[in-house]
Structures are given as structure tokens and as C-alpha cells.
Amino acid sequence: MAESFAAAVAEQLRQNLGEALLAVTGEDAEWGEFAAQLLSQLVISILYLALFIGAYLLLTGTIRLVIGKQRAQQPFFSQVRSGARYLAGLGALLVILAQFGASPEFLKAMARAGLMVLGFFVAWMIVGRLMKEGVTRYRLDPSIRQLVENLFSVLAGTLALVTVLAQFGFDVLSIIAGLGIVGIAVGFAAQSTLSNFIAGITLLIERPFRIGDWVTINGQDGKVVKIALRTTWLRTRDNIFAMIPNDSVASSDIINYSAEGATRLNIPVGIAYKESAKAAREVLMPVLLGHPEVLQAAGMEPRVLLKSLGDSSMNLEVKVWITPDNLDVQPRIMADILEQMKEALDAAGIEIPFPHLQLFIDDAKGLKSIVEPLYPKLAAK
């Protein structure tokens, strides 16, 4: 039963293939002749493929012998070898298709399309090399190079696809018009995303800050950890990540604490009016000069200045400089300096005042019975 079932399946397959071949060729199928013809075409195709592979190996081997093994390992030779491999593959494909009955018009279109693809690839390599040299020469942000490369890749790929399709008879104008309509629709549907994208490009070009800088954006303090094309990422001192849309970043005030190197800290200190500002300065300066994280470079020496005369104190201002690396621990440094200054002023007996309230009561006869026992001399008057 199994043998009869297998014979029936084989007969049905033979019949279906024969009908399909009859529909294509218009003649009855001669399976022996068809198999022999197919086998001969496969053998010839393999021979042509081996011929092209041999020609490719011979060419690359000759170039390697001429220029030397060491120079043959350079990127340029690798690109030349890729181009030769591509041409060998294209030639083998055309010959094989011709063996299986492809029309001359189709082969010509494929040859033109293949050469155009190679031309676009060479142009992409040249532009990529120029962009790399430009980024290195003008010290541009690597993100800009990556962005330009991506945009150029998309444009070149789209243009190459349209050009290739045009070789096979497709209407290029209709394709371009369709792409334009799709682009307009996408633009209307993603206005916010495109706005942030364009703002991201602006930030990468103008570079108001870089990764690792401490900044204030929209009132948010933090360290820049990532500059994406749509958002900017900040890490606050509490280790909280904030993602700010680039459109908002580009339109807001940006304060960069790391852009110019060292940063100055202004720490207010108040002393009583009975004290001497000079004496307080002499007490505080050793504290500042002995702190390990306060800069002592020329032009950045710590200072203690009398800033203003307040209602109940003389207001001093301590000015110290710290390195950009210490911006991460700026609050700790300020707290440490304040604590040491408080201890130094206490040890020197210099008073740090606080607001006092003095109350004067006139004609308060109801308090006489309470005041007379406390101040008998005043009551006698």
C-alpha cells in the first residue's frame, strides 16, 4: 500500500511539473532532455564561476606581490579587494543568468545597475574619508560625524535604490513624488520629534556643553551623561537621571560650570560689629590655605573680603577655587570649609552673631507689679 501511495504521489508531481513546463514553453515536457539541458547549464555556470573566482584571486595575488605584503594590509587595499570581489561576483551573475535564458535587455539593465551601485559605494567611501579628516582637523564632536554619516547613508541609499529601479523601467518621478509625500506626512505626524532632532543637531554643532560637564538647564543642576539627538541626559547629585527634550534645552538659559576650568566658590560668613574684619581674616586664612581641595595657584588664591554691613553683622565673603574634577563633591567641600571656619572663629573668640530683638515698653502700668520686684531702683524713680 505504501509503494502504491508513493507511486501515486510521484505521478502527480510529474504531471504537475509537466503542466507547468508546458505553460511556460508551450511544448510537452521531455524529462530526459530537460534534465540533461539543466545539468549542462549548471556545469557551465560552475565553470564560469570558477573562472571568475580564479581571475579575482590572480588579480589580488598579483597586486599583493607588486606592492608587498605589508602595504597589502592597509585599508585602501582592502577596499580595492572588496571592489574586485564585487565586480567578479557581478560578472559571474550576469554570465550565469545568460546561461538560463535571461534577455539581453535584462542583462544590460542589471549590468548598469550593478556598476551604479559600485559607483555609489565608492562615493560613500570617499565622502566618509573626507568627513573623518574634517572632524579630526576641526576637532568637531564625533557625534556630528556619526550624524552626517547616517544622513548621507540614508540619502545615498535612497538615491541608489531609485537609480537602480530606473534601470529596470520603473518611473523615477513617481517614486520621488511618493517619497516626498511620505516625507511630508511623517513630518506632520512627528513635529515634536523633528523639532527635538533639529535642536539636537544645533546643540552638537554649537556645543554649549559636553559629556561630563556640570550644568544648569531649566533650573535643573546635573552632570551631562548623554547627548542624544532627541534628549539630553543629566545626573543630579542625588544620582537621579533627568531627560530634557533638546528643543527645551536649546531655547533655555544654560549655565556651564565646567567650560572654563576651575570654579570659584563664594561662602558668606558674618561676624559681630564689635569684632575686627582683619582679625577674622587672619583666623580664616590658615583654614583655607590648609584645605587640600582649595587651589593655591597664581590668581586663584583664597581670599576673605568684607562684602557688606548688614543689620546685625559684618558680612564677609570667603572666595576659594576648586578644580573641575571636584565639582562632583562641591557641596561636601563647602560644608567642610564652613565647619572648619566655625571652629576656628569659636577658638579665637570671634562672635558669629544672630538676629536679636529688643523690646521697649512705655507706660505699661499693668506690668508695674511684676517689674518693681525685679528692678526696685527703677521703680523708686
UniProtKB/TrEMBL annotation:
Membrane topology according to the record: Multi-pass membrane protein
- Coiled-coil intervals: none
Q: Might you report a single GO cellular component term?
A: plasma membrane
Record-linked SUPFAM superfamilies: Mechanosensitive channel protein MscS (YggB), C-terminal domain (SSF82689), Mechanosensitive channel protein MscS (YggB), transmembrane region (SSF82861), Sm-like ribonucleoproteins (SSF50182)
Cell location = Cell inner membrane; Cell membrane
Q: Locate the Mechanosensitive ion channel transmembrane helices 2/3 domain: which residues?
A: 150-191
Query: Assembly and interactions?
Result: Homoheptamer.
Its family?
Answer: Belongs to the MscS (TC 1.A.23) family.
Its protein name is Small-conductance mechanosensitive channel
Organism the protein comes from: Marinobacter panjinensis
